[in-house]
Amino acid sequence: MAPALNGGFAYRDRIAPRAAGRSVSAFYAGCYRHSTPTDWLQRLAAGEISRNGQQLQADGALAAGDQLIWHRPPWQEAAVPVLPSPLFDNGDLLVFNKPSGLPVLPAGGFLEHTLLAQLQDRWPEARPVHRLGRFTSGLLVCARSSGSRAWLSALLRESTAQRHCTKTYRALLQPPVPESPLLALEPDQRLSLTTPIGRCPHTRLGTIWAAAPSDPVALPARSELRLLERGERAWLVEVTIATGRPHQIRIHTAAAGAPLLGDPLYAPGGLAAEQALPGDGGYHLHAHRLRLVCPDGDLLALEAPLPEALRGAADG
C-alpha cells in the first residue's frame, strides 16, 4: 500500500476524579507522551479539542466526568506491505504469513494502513486473535467468530495451554555479552528463559514492557531457546514460547545478554532504550511454525516460509 492520507481520528477520554483540576494541556501531555503541553495548546487554538460537546479554544481546568475529544486531522500514513492471501482458511479460521513492516492494529501513526483494515476489506467479520510486532513476520491467526477468537486468544496467551498450542520462531541474535548463559550452548542445545515481564518507566511512552525480575506484579513468562548456528556477526536461534507476553522474545533474549540483531529498543539486560519505540524496526524475527487445537478439536499444523536472512545451512 502506497503512502496515503487517512480520514483523521477522534480520540475520546473521560476525566477520572484523580485528574480533576488539571488543565486540558497538562492532561493530554500526560496521556499522550508524544506531544508537549505547547503542542496541545496549539491544538486547542486550532479548534481540534472539544469538552462535553463544546469546542475549546483556550486551556482550562477539568472536572471529573468531563468528556474530551481530540479531533485529529487527517495525516499521511507510511507505505506498508499488502496482506497476502491466507495460508489456511477453513471458513472460520484464517492464518496469514504476515510480512515484516505491516502493523497488525492501529497505533504509532497507523490507522488505516494495518493488517486489520486490509483483513476487514475482504472478510468484514474477521479479527486477529493475537498480535505480532510490526517488523515481526510470519504466522498470524485470525478468526471470524467471537467464540473462536476467545478460545484461541486463551491458547495463544497462557502456558497452561501449551499442550494445545506450540509457537516457534526464528531469530537472529547479537553475539552474546561475556556474562551471557548463551555462551555455554553448542548448536542444537537448549536454554530456558524465564525472566518475568512487567511495566517499566519510559521517557516517551510513560511505561513500556521490559524485563522486570524484581517486580512482584510482573507477568511470568517462559521461552525455550535452541541454538542453530553461531557466527562472528550473528547467532541463529529457534525460540518456542510457552506464554504470549508483549515483546517476549525480544525481552527474553536481551535479558539473557543477546538482544535481537538490529533491535533498537531492547539492550542487554532486557530494559528499553529511552528514545526508541516498540514499533522501531531493524531486527529479524519470524513466527515460523504453529501447532494448535482448533475450536472443533482438529489439529492445525502450519509453517511459514523463512525469510532469506533467517535460513541456516540446514535449511538448504
UniProtKB/TrEMBL annotation:
Domain (Pseudouridine synthase RsuA/RluA-like) ranges: 92-255
Transmembrane domains' residue ranges: none
Record-linked PROSITE patterns: PSI_RLU
Highest taxon above the source species: Bacteria
Catalytic activity: a uridine in RNA = a pseudouridine in RNA
Signal peptide: none
Name of the molecule in the record: RNA pseudouridylate synthase
SUPFAM superfamilies cross-referenced by the UniProt entry: Pseudouridine synthase
CDD domains linked to this entry: PseudoU_synth_RluA_like
Organism: Cyanobium usitatum str. Tous
BP terms from Gene Ontology: enzyme-directed rRNA pseudouridine synthesis
InterPro entries noted in UniProt: PsdUridine_synth_cat_dom_sf (IPR020103), PsdUridine_synth_RluA-like_CS (IPR006224), PsdUridine_synth_RsuA/RluA (IPR006145), RluA_PseudoU_synthase (IPR050188)
